[in-house]
């Protein structure tokens, strides 16, 4: 089976000229005459006029849903990919034929451990949406509540593991033959893809992500998150509140419904920065297929989020780093951007701040000379990542997810309102957040957060202070270290004694056996 799959991959790669793309890259890198000749020979008998990004996208679509998903994840790594390939891969869509409704019912019954008519009052076997990992059906609970049921494709795990093994083999081969491939770190990208896929295979995890996001936006007029019905969820089944609205990509339909598109575009920016800097937990897959806009009732003119398989989280250090970077960008303070990279520890200690500052300025000044409303904050972040690459900066995965999400939000916002000035919307939010972090309000919040530890810490302070002063006054060995060394010596003595006893026992048994044999 693996040989058959490998053969199919080779045939698809040949048909779309992926071999020619690889060799062309090597020829451009090394400038070798024989490589250039090989490129020309590889083209013989094939029509390879389409751009390389388009050919790669078509090849991934031909190879099936797992490779499509891989291309989608790869398109988010703009810090690693050439822009033309990243742009083309971003066009990949989950146009996957649905699997049979009777198989979906069987999967639901297997996951929930009950017959379908015991779980739902009505279940539509015809799916309303189908993607690479799962598909969605409408149903009604026993109490009449309309729901949407997401069910994983059957037997996905073996298919995923098989294709991942082939991807790793190809990635390892590329790293052996191409310096460009080594720079792109294909095995790390495949490992990241592995994590995404296996996270999406656990629908209980997705339901938990949705619950957290729903709790964060409780009472908010900006974002609606559907309720999860936990009694009807399993690893391969997710049952959630059925949402009604207009897909955010249908602009004319939203205009006809009276939705304020300018407000919607500003709300999207506010939702993003609220998730990042207030909650440190953000929906990381906000493409148009995962977002509805309410067209009636309490949800009118409000975002409705769907599909919570990929979320991002940020630490306090990440949030502080991002906020200060964004503000430094607003002020064109490139020196501060470079200093933040050094302070974060992402740049090798030997890096000269002046050189990094010059690289950041070179990337950003052409962008900032354009009108503010035309500037993409996501592209600025991407340029920063690309500039940092030559300084051996290891971009953190959560920041790559955030950059991808920011690009999605900007794209949606500008689609809704071409005049959206994302900087004007974002700057007050960031400045207010920084004031809360470094001002009296931030100090009070941190004191309140740490206060729960004080009853345990305060009584120990005199003893800890005395021990510290005693160690400072007596430069002798640390008593704890002495105890540890004594314990290690005792353990070694016991081990030696035990070994000797075992050897004696073996020798005695051998002597006894020899004696018995001689007696015979």
Key phrases:
24 helices, four-stranded mixed sheet, Phosphorylase Kinase, domain 1, 11 strands, 63% helix, alpha+beta, 520 residues
What does this structure look like?
This protein is an alpha+beta fold. It has three domains: 1-93, no CATH class; 96-242, Phosphorylase Kinase, domain 1 (2-Layer Sandwich); 245-458, no CATH class. Helix content is 63%, strand content 8%. The protein is built from 24 helices and eleven strands. The protein has helices at 2-15, 18-30, 33-42, 52-63, 65-75, 83-89, 101-112, 116-119, 156-177, 179-184, 186-200, 203-216, 251-256, 261-279, 316-330, 334-344, 353-368, 377-389, 397-416, 422-438, 440-451, 454-457, 461-473, 479-519, and strands at 120-123, 129-130, 134-141, 146-152, 223-224, 237-241, 246-247, 281-283, 291-293, 303-305, 311-313. Strands 1, 2, 3, 4 and 6 form a five-stranded antiparallel β-sheet that branches. The chain has a four-stranded mixed β-sheet with strand order 5-10-9-7, covered by helices on one side. β2 (129-130) and β3 form a beta hairpin. The longest helix has 41 residues, at 479-519.
Derived from helix and strand composition plus strand pairing, the structural class reads alpha+beta
Shape: globular
Q: Tell me the Rg in angstroms.
A: 30 Å
Helix content: 55-70%
* Weakly predicted, low-confidence segments: 26-31
What is the number of helices? 24
Average pLDDT metric: 77
What multimeric state do the chains show? single chain
N-to-C terminal Cα separation, in Å?
60 Å
């Amino acid at each position: 089976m693996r040989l058959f799959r490998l053969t199919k991959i080779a045939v698809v790669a040949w048909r779309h000229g992926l071999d020619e793309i690889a060799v062309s890259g090597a020829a451009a890198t090394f400038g070798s005459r024989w490589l250039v000749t090989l490129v020309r020979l590889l083209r013989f008998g094939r029509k390879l006029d389409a751009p390389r990004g388009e050919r790669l996208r078509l090849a991934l679509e031909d190879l099936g849903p797992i490779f499509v998903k891989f291309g989608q994840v790869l398109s988010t790594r703009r810090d690693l990919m050439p822009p033309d390939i990243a742009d083309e891969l971003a066009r990949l869509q989950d146009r996957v034929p649905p699997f049979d409704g009777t198989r979906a019912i069987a999967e639901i019954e297997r996951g929930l451990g009950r017959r379908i008519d015991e779980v739902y009052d009505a279940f539509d076997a015809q799916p309303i949406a189908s993607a690479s990992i799962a598909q969605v059906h409408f149903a009604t609970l026993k109490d009449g509540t309309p729901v949407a049921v997401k069910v994983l494709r059957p037997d996905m795990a073996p298919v995923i593991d098989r294709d991942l093994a082939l991807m790793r083999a190809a990635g390892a081969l590329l790293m052996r033959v191409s310096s460009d491939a080594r720079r792109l770190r294909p095995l790390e990208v495949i490992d990241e893809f592995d994590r995404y896929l296996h996270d999406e295979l656990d629908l209980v995890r997705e339901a938990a992500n949705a619950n957290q996001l729903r709790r964060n936006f409780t009472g908010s007029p900006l974002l609606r998150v559907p309720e999860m019905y936990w009694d009807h969820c399993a690893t391969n089944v997710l049952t959630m509140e059925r949402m009604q609205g207009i897909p955010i990509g249908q602009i004319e339909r939203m205009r006809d419904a009276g939705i304020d598109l300018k407000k919607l575009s500003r709300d999207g920016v506010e939702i993003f920065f609220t998730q990042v800097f207030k909650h440190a937990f953000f929906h990381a897959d906000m493409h148009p297929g995962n977002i509805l806009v309410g067209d009636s009732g309490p949800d009118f003119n409000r975002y409705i989020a769907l599909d919570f398989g990929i979320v991002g989280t940020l630490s306090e250090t990440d949030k502080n780093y991002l906020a200060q970077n964004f503000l430094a960008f607003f002020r064109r303070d490139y020196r501060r951007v470079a200093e933040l990279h050094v302070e974060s520890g992402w740049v090798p200690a030997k890096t000269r701040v002046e050189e990094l500052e010059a690289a950041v300025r070179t990337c950003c000044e052409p962008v900032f000379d354009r009108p503010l409303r035309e500037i993409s904050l996501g592209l600025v972040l991407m340029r920063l990542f690309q500039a940092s690459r030559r300084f051996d900066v290891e971009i953190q995965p959560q920041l790559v997810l955030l950059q991808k999400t920011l690009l999605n939000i900007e794209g949606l916002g500008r689609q809704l309102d071409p005049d959206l000035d994302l900087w004007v919307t974002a700057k007050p939010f960031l400045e207010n957040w920084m004031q809360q972090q470094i001002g009296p309000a931030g100090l009070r919040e941190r004191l309140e957060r740490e206060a729960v530890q004080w009853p345990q810490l305060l009584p120990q302070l005199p003893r800890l202070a005395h021990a510290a002063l005693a160690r400072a006054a007596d430069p002798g060995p640390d008593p704890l270290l002495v105890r540890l060394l004594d314990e290690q010596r005792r353990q070694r003595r016991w081990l030696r004694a035990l070994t000797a006893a075992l050897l004696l026992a073996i020798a005695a048994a051998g002597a006894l056996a020899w004696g018995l044999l001689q007696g015979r």
